[in-house]
Amino acid sequence: MPAAAAVPAENRDTASVSVFHGVPGLTVDVYANGEELLPDFKPGTLTEPQSLPAGTYDIEVFADGEGPDGNPAIRKSIDVPAGANATVAAHLTEQGDPTLTAFVNDVSDIPAGQSRLTVRHVAAAPAVDVRADGTPVVERLTNPNEKSLEVPAGTVSADVVLAGTDTVAIGPADLNLAEGTTTIVYAWGSAEDDNLALKTQTIGGMETAPGGVDAGESGAMAAHNESATAWLVWGTAGAVAVAGLLAARRRHPRSD
Questions:
Q1: Cross-strand pairs, 240
Q2: What is the pLDDT along the chain (256 residues), one digit of tens a residue?
Q3: Entry pTM
């Protein structure tokens, strides 16, 4: 998919939100404030980023075809914070239960010649190591955590192995880590069901002029601060469709 642009700093009343459906075999219908937003939303897809007014939305999630008169699988309020670039990931916990985690994407400047790689563990699987060209770059990553690195721009072969072993769980897959972009890799699916997979998301627009390069970082794979911690965690995979059409149905936060 095309690279998503970073949120302009001056845009303080909205957020840029993408959603990733990472629960195998689960199709859902999603409602916001009583209105159907998206029927028949299928797993394995990542939406284009949407600009949403900041605010609170009441979400109801039904098994495909069971809404709105049935009992929702979940009824939750979701806060959309102003100014954030975020991805909402519907996925499985390590134990295999559907859940949903929203991550704030790091859209800070990247030194010239470098690229940011973020790995997110959203699979029903134990701790994993992520390797680039056979070398571990992220170790003992657990669900639903993430880790970010700044690396030289270029193409790398990435795979996911069980932590501390050479047992490949996912991959290898070639990643094109373009200069000035953040590439987010989601390890998703279920180890027990043998359907583990990778999904990538690219966010662009973070280039830095060559004069701004920190000489201590040039040419090395340096550990970067972990991306901002998840700003929302709430149960069930069905809410994956929330971002697409929320803007038309914004409501003010409730006082209760």
A1: none
A2: 445 544 444 456 898 888 888 888 888 777 777 878 778 878 888 888 988 787 777 767 677 888 888 887 666 676 778 888 988 788 899 999 887 787 889 999 999 999 999 999 999 999 999 999 999 999 999 999 999 999 999 999 999 999 999 999 999 999 999 999 999 999 999 999 999 999 999 999 998 766 544 433 333 233 333 333 333 333 333 333 333 333 333 344 443 4
A3: 0.75
Q: What is the CATH number of domain 106-226?
A: 2.60.40
Domain positions in the chain: 11-105+229-256, 106-226
Q: Which two tokens stand for residue 124?
A: 């029903």
Q: Which bin fits 166, alpha (ψ -120 to 50), beta or left (φ > 0)? A: alpha
Q: Kindly list the distances between the CA atom of residue 95 and the CA atoms of 4, 39, 103, 232, in Å, as whole numbers in the listed order.
A: 32, 27, 20, 19
Q: How many residues does the chain have?
A: 256
